[in-house]
Specification:
heterodimer, A: alpha/beta, 6-stranded mixed β-sheet, 10 strands, about 40% helix, globular, B: mainly alpha, ABC transporter involved in vitamin B12 uptake, BtuC, two-stranded antiparallel ribbon, 4 strands, about 75% helix, about 5% strand
C-alpha cells in the first residue's frame, strides 16, 4: 500500500543557503492530498524559505521537489501556479488601486486568455459573474466594485484569499494568514479554511497555536532549517523536543 | 451595487477626436502647423506611456525607437525609393524590432538598472548614427526631396507638403494610437499590465509569465514610437541625429508625467502643454529653459499626478 500511495507534494534533500547561512537543510517533506498541514517553528526556523521554494519564489541550492508525481524543481513560479500550487502572501499584496472585481478577475481571466482574441477581449459579464462567485466564497460579494485600498485590513486578507481560490488551487500555501486579524475574524477565517480544505490541500505557516491546533490534521515542526518533528496536534503538543525548541531549555 | 454600469469609455476619446478634427477649420496657420507636430509627438508619448504608465517600465532610451522609425522611414524612402506608406510602415517595423531586441536584454533588469541599460542602448544608437555619417548625415541630418514625398492613388497625386493633408494624416495616426491605448487599457492584457506595475511578483504567483508581458508592452511601445518617428520624417521631411539624442528620451517622459501617467489622454495634453510652453518661453527670452523649468515645477506642484491624472482624481472625489 505504501508504494501505491502518492503524495501530492514531496521534497527530497531540499536545501537553501543564503551566503553562509543555511536557512533550510536537506528537508524531506511529504504532503498527502486532502490534508490541512501546519508548519510551525521559532523565528528563523526556515518555514518561509521552505514554502517559498515549494511555490517557486526562491530557487533551492540543492534537492528536488515533486508535485503530483512530476519533478517541478526547474519550473518558474508562474508555471507552478498554473499547475495548481497557489501561494498567498504573508504581507497582504492585493492590487491596491484595482477594484475587488479586477483583483479577482486577474486571477480568473488567465484560463480564458487563449488565442489572440481571448487576450484582447473577454466576455466581461461572464467574468464578472465568476468574480462575484469567488468573492462570495469569502463573504465579499457586496464589495465587488470597491477599490481594494478602501477595504479594512481583514477584508484585504480575505480578498487575497479569494484571489488564491479563484485560481482553483490543488495546493494552497498560506503564510501566516491570521496575522493582524481580530479574534472574531480569526474564528471566521478558521471556518473558511475548513470549507476550503474540502476541495484543496492546505499548507499553512502559522504562529497562532490556537489556530494551528484547531485546523491542522498534522503539524510539521521546523527548527534551524530542519524538520524537528511531525505528527498530529496531540502528538506535537506532547513532544518534548518541540517544547525545548520553543522554550529553549 | 453590482449592476452599476460603468461610464462609456469611448465618450471622451470621441469628443477629443471630433474637437481635433474641427480645430483645423478654425486655427490660424501657425497653430495649425503646431498641432500637426503635437499630434505626431503625442503618438510617441502614447507609446512611451504604454511602457511607463501601463507596465511601469521607466525607460531612458526611447529616443532610439523614435529614431529607428525616423531613419527607417527616411532612409528607405531616400535611398531605396520606398513609397510613402511603405516607408511609414517600415519605420514602425524598425521601432518594433529594435524594441523586441533591446527588450530581450534590458528587461532582465529592473528599476534603476533598467533605466541605465536603456540609456546605454540608446546612446549606442545615437553613436551608430553619427558613425555612419556618410549615409545618415549625422547631426546635420538630411532633407527628404519634395518629389518623393507624394501619395499616389492611381492618377491622383497628393503632396505631403500640403498642410491640410499633413494635419489629417497626423490626426489619423494619433486617433489610431489613442484608441489603441484606450482599448488596451480595458483589455485583459491591460489589466495584467497595470497589475504588473503595482506588484510584479504577485502577478507571477497568479500564473502569468510577466517577462512576456513586459516584453509585449515594450514592443508595442517601440512600434508606436517608431511610427511616430516615421511620420515625423515623412511629414516634415527632416531626418537628423538630434532625434536620437538623450533629450528625446527625456521628452516623452516629461510629456507623460505632465499629462498624467497611465491616462489615455495625458500624452496629448502633456505634449501640447510642453510644446506651447517652450514656444511661448522662447519668445520672451533666449534662456527659455529657465522659464520652462520653473513652470514645470509649478505644474508638478499643482498637478502632482499630471494634468489629466489630477483632474480625474478630483472628479472622482466630487462624485463619490
Amino acid at each position: 500500500m505504501s508504494l501505491l500511495q502518492t503524495h501530492l507534494l514531496q521534497t527530497r534533500g531540499l536545501s537553501r543557503h543564503f551566503g553562509g547561512v543555511q536557512a533550510v537543510r536537506e528537508v524531506d517533506f511529504e504532503l498527502p492530498a486532502g490534508e490541512i498541514r501546519a508548519v510551525i517553528g521559532p523565528n528563523g526556523a526556515g518555514k518561509t524559505t521552505l514554502v517559498s521554494m515549494i511555490s517557486g519564489r526562491i530557487r533551492p541550492s540543492a534537492g528536488r521537489i515533486r508535485f503530483k508525481g512530476v519533478d517541478i524543481t526547474g519550473l518558474r513560479n508562474w508555471q507552478r501556479a498554473r499547475r495548481g500550487i497557489v501561494y498567498t502572501f504573508q504581507i497582504t499584496s492585493v492590487f491596491q488601486n484595482l477594484s475587488c472585481h479586477d483583483n479577482v478577475a486577474l486571477a480568473l481571466q488567465r484560463k480564458r486568455m487563449t488565442g489572440l482574441s481571448g487576450r484582447v477581449h473577454l466576455d466581461a459579464d461572464a467574468l464578472r459573474g465568476e468574480a462575484e462567485m469567488a468573492l462570495d466564497r469569502v463573504g465579499l460579494a457586496a464589495r465587488l466594485d470597491e477599490r481594494a485600498a478602501n477595504l479594512p485590513y481583514g477584508h484585504q486578507r480575505l480578498l487575497e484569499l479569494a484571489m488564491g481560490l479563484a485560481l482553483a488551487p490543488e495546493l494552497l500555501i498560506m503564510d501566516e494568514p491570521t496575522q493582524g486579524l481580530s479574534e472574531s475574524e480569526i474564528l471566521a477565517f478558521c471556518d473558511l479554511i475548513r470549507r476550503i480544505a474540502r476541495e484543496t490541500t492546505v499548507l499553512l505557516i502559522e504562529h497562532n497555536m490556537a489556530v494551528v491546533m484547531a485546523l491542522a490534521g498534522r503539524i510539521t515542526v521546523m527548527n534551524e532549517g530542519a524538520i524537528l518533528a511531525e505528527g498530529t496536534p496531540a502528538e506535537i503538543a506532547a513532544n518534548i523536543d518541540v517544547q525545548h525548541a520553543y522554550l529553549g531549555t | 451595487m453590482t449592476g452599476r454600469k460603468q461610464d462609456n469609455p469611448w465618450r471622451t476619446p470621441m469628443i477629443v477626436l471630433v474637437l481635433l478634427l474641427a480645430a483645423q477649420f478654425v486655427l490660424p496657420a501657425y497653430h495649425h502647423g503646431n498641432l500637426t507636430r503635437i499630434m505626431v509627438f503625442a503618438v510617441f508619448a502614447i507609446g512611451y506611456n504604454l511602457a511607463f504608465g501601463y507596465a511601469g517600465l521607466l525607460s531612458l532610451g526611447h529616443a532610439m525607437f523614435f529614431a529607428a522609425g525616423l531613419y527607417g522611414a527616411g532612409m528607405s524612402a531616400h535611398f531605396l525609393g520606398f513609397s510613402m506608406p511603405l516607408a511609414f510602415l517600415f519605420g514602425g517595423l524598425c521601432g518594433l524590432v529594435l524594441a523586441l531586441a533591446v527588450g530581450l536584454v534590458a528587461l532582465r533588469t529592473r528599476g534603476v538598472s533598467f533605466m541605465i541599460v536603456t540609456l546605454m542602448f540608446s546612446q549606442v544608437g545615437f553613436l551608430t548614427i553619427l558613425y555612419f555619417n556618410e549615409f545618415t548625415r549625422g547631426d546635420e541630418g538630411f532633407v527628404l526631396a519634395q518629389e518623393i514625398r507624394q501619395l499616389r492613388f492611381g492618377e491622383t497625386v497628393l503632396s505631403l507638403t500640403d498642410p491640410t493633408l499633413r494635419y489629417n494624416l497626423a490626426l489619423g495616426l494619433f486617433a489610431a494610437s489613442y484608441l489603441l491605448g484606450v482599448a488596451l487599457l480595458r483589455s485583459p492584457i491591460g489589466r495584467v499590465l497595470v497589475a504588473l506595475r503595482e506588484n510584479e511578483s504577485r502577478v507571477q504567483m497568479l500564473g502569468y509569465n510577466t517577462f512576456g508581458y513586459r516584453l509585449l508592452a515594450l514592443s508595442i511601445s517601440g512600434a508606436l514610437s517608431g511610427l511616430s518617428g516615421a511620420a515625423y520624417a515623412l511629414l516634415f521631411a527632416y531626418v537628423g541625429a538630434t532625434f536620437a539624442a538623450t533629450q528625446y528620451s527625456i521628452y516623452p517622459l516629461l510629456w507623460v508625467l505632465l499629462g498624467g501617467v497611465g491616462t489615455a489622454l495625458g500624452p496629448l495634453i502633456g505634449t501640447g502643454l510642453m510644446f506651447y510652453l517652450v514656444d511661448f518661453a522662447s519668445e520672451i527670452t533666449s534662456s527659455y529653459l529657465i522659464v520652462v523649468g520653473v513652470v514645470l515645477v509649478l505644474l508638478v506642484i499643482v498637478f502632482p499626478k499630471g494634468v489629466i491624472g489630477t483632474l480625474q482624481e478630483k472628479w472622482r472625489g466630487l462624485r463619490s
